[in-house]
Amino acid sequence: MSKEIRLATVNEHNKATDLWVVINNKVYDVTKFRLEHPGGEDSLVDVAGRDATKDFIDVGHSSEAREMLKKYYIGELAAADIKQKSPISCRQVALALGAAFIGITLVYVIRRGVARN
Ligand code: HEM
Asked: pLDDT tens per residue, the chain (117 residues)?
């Protein structure tokens, strides 16, 4: 089993010469990579010791960049530090409301049609 790393531990590795980041609940040591990073050293130092998932995704990194991550993988973020997603997403609520609205409208239209005849 892969090693579980606490977020508090990741937070300690927050400088250029000791640089860990979390991306998609996986922990990476990019201390050496920072000097080779095509997006510059600073963008990595800015997120040192913390969750960089959003920053990494926002840049729109290539599949090559995502593939490179494997090289720097050191472990999984501890389960206790993983934010649980709400079981019901906003999208599901919107879909359910949309379906209910269409259903009610259909019943109304059909009933009016039946009443006319
Ligand atoms: C930690 C793992 C990371 C790896 C392995 C990585 C790798 C790369 C690679 C290979 C590129 C070249 C373009 C591409 O192939 O997409 C790139 C560009 C870039 N990266 Fe990263 N990156 C990482 C994290 C980050 C983070 C956390 C940020 C932002 C805070 C960032 C910001 C950028 C920027 C601004 C560019 C330049 C984009 C451009 O000029 O088009 N990267 N990165």
From this structure: 689 999 999 999 999 999 999 999 999 999 999 999 999 999 999 999 999 999 999 999 999 999 999 999 999 999 999 987 777 778 889 999 999 999 999 999 999 988 876
CATH of the domain at 57: 3.10.120.10
Using CA atoms, how far residue 24 sits from 9, 51, 55, 108, in Å, is: 17, 8, 11, 46
**Whole domain around residue 104: which residue ranges?**
85-117
Q: Which atom of ligand 1 is nearest to the CA of 30?
A: 1
* Residues 50 and 72 both lie in one domain: yes
Pocket lining: 50 vs ligand 1, CB cutoff 6 Å: no
- Ligand 1 centroid to Cα of residue 54, in Å, is 12
Rounded to the nearest angstrom, the distance between the alpha carbon of 29 and the centre of ligand 1 is 15
Q: How far apart are CA 46 and CA 42, in angstroms?
A: 6
44 and 77 share one domain: yes
